[in-house]
Amino acid sequence: MRYCCPSLLASLVALGLAALAAGCMRRGTGGGGKAGPTKLEISISLGGNESPTRLWTLQCPAGGTLPDPARACRRLETLDHPFAPVPKNSACTAIYGGPQIAEVRGTFRGRTINARFTRGNGCEIARWNRVRFLFPSG
Known about the structure:
The protein has about 140 residues and is an alpha+beta fold.
């Protein structure tokens, strides 16, 4: 078999291998890669007008006011897209988990995030539970 442009073919093969290697390295970090710092502000409202809002901070690798920040950073490191919203058109169970609301703002792996967590249905409860270590109740 004869190719008209061996140098083009070699370039395409090299580019494909580089992309594959980059994808494997990113997957190997346990969370899509560490592109930058993580510095979060977490506010938790336990619901009702009488309940105060609790505020926490987390700065990875191990700082902030959140209880056991080193453990929280390690757990966050293992998650892919922990602050992604529930996908639109998801079929969610009609289970109410409570009036709690958590908001997480700041940077995660160098990217700006602004996420709101509720417990209004089964999908939102599952999303909350995935990162519940960021929401201490005490």
